[in-house]
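Researcher: I need the complex structure. Ligand is zinc ion. Inputs:
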Amino acid sequence: MKDSKTIILSIESSCDDTSAAVLGDGWLLSNVMASQEVHRQYGGVIPELASRAHQQNILPVVSEALRTSGVKMDEVDAIAFTRGPGLLGSLIVGTSFAKGLSLASGKPLVEVNHLQGHILSHFIKVPGREVSQPEFPFLALLVSGGHTQIVRVDDYLDFTVLGQTIDDAVGEAFDKCAKMLGLGYPGGPVIDRLAKEGDPRRFRFAKPSIPGLDFSFSGIKTSLLYFLRDSLKDDPRFIEKNKADLCASFQKDLIDILMRKIIRAAQVTGIRHIVAGGGVAANSGLRDALTAEGERRGWKVFLPELRFTTDNAAMIGIVGYYKYQKGLFCSLEAAPISRAADYQL
Ligand code: KG4
Ligand code: ZN
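Model: Output:
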């Protein structure tokens, strides 16, 4: 397997998915994921339970990633791990495991910013699947459960945040809407599915007017809350009767907010290669809107494979690969960084 390739073993544990992957020269050799079902019954991720589940999952997940890749530990060149941002307890499990493995195997460590992983997921090469890659500079619309940003990317490791949310992330807005409608957690995929059956023009919610390229999602969430409260007073079965239209309308408004800003960013920078990344990049409405706008405006739009939208270790491995090439290793002292604001892109 070695054939003088650069082999990266990567570990992701920032939220509620434990994942490990092996990449050889940026080609995906394995990507194993253990999703945590335990949070579903609580309607959101419970940090303490997430850490415990990571501890149970991490050894089998890493072993399975190595086994299915056909790579032996002594053939690995470096261990990449998510240092942040994310839930502190979850990050501690992955970070500590990576350090232990590094000590035991003598392999160097590469720390990875999870958000860079979402953005660079477009450079993961999948055997048998030739796809074109974005050219620098490009704009990334980074949309996940914890973050919403527009990032200018000038090189593999050269990122500039042009705009970001001033309150909630867009994924959070999806999840909170689903909670209000009694649809369970995580909300994004359910809303996406129901929205396909509904009328997106049926309801309108208050849109924010935030200057520049920043976003806000807390107002629209409150607007939905008050609207539901008032409507339920008149008809206690309002949600039940209008579920699909509510999902379609709310999703459309969220997508409009995102599209307005990415269009502005493309105009301001003159950049025409646009990529989407993060869990919400799985949303079919957003994917359609980006594709349609791209055709209208002459953009080249890059949408990640669905399995690379939500958290996965392959995206951590691809960042690890580019950092390895530059000799950007980290020491055993590197502690997890929970907040995005404390961990520069
Ligand atoms: O990137 P991710 O897996 O975790 C974070 O880094 O936050 O994103 C998770 C988020 C959740 O809010 C989930 O509801 C949302 O991505 N999501 C979606 C869809 N699939 C996942 N949102 C809208 N439509 C989807 N199809
Ligand atoms: Zn993520």
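Model: Summary of the prediction. The radius of gyration is 20 Å.
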